[in-house]
Amino acid sequence: MVPIGPVFCSPGCISAALESPCSFFASAHARAGVGLEPRRPGRRIMREDAPGANPRAEAQKTMAKFLLWCILLVLCWPLALLALILYPVVWLLLLPFRLVGIAVGGALELVKAVIFLPARVLRAI
Hints:
There is one protein chain. The protein is mainly α. The protein has 4 helices and 2 strands. 70% of the residues lie in helices and 5% in strands. It is elongated and about 65 Å long.
């Protein structure tokens, strides 16, 4: 692998990239199954199911929830209004648990970083 700016490429790809850059990036790497993700130390690639990874899927989920609530409003309006009022209250009650989860996750990431620090230092040498 040869670094070309922030992107890594195999040596045979360099001449193809110089001849026709547009078709090179669109087809050669797609056929080879090679991603063009910049490789930076410590940079994480977002998982597909992570929040914010796919805004279109999030919009579809939001629309589905809204349509289900509209159906509930038509079928049983008192229950729909109760759900509308109780949702923020339940969210506020569960907020401390979410904050504890974030804090515990951060502490575990710190422990992981401390454990893997010697390996990262040796790899950098």
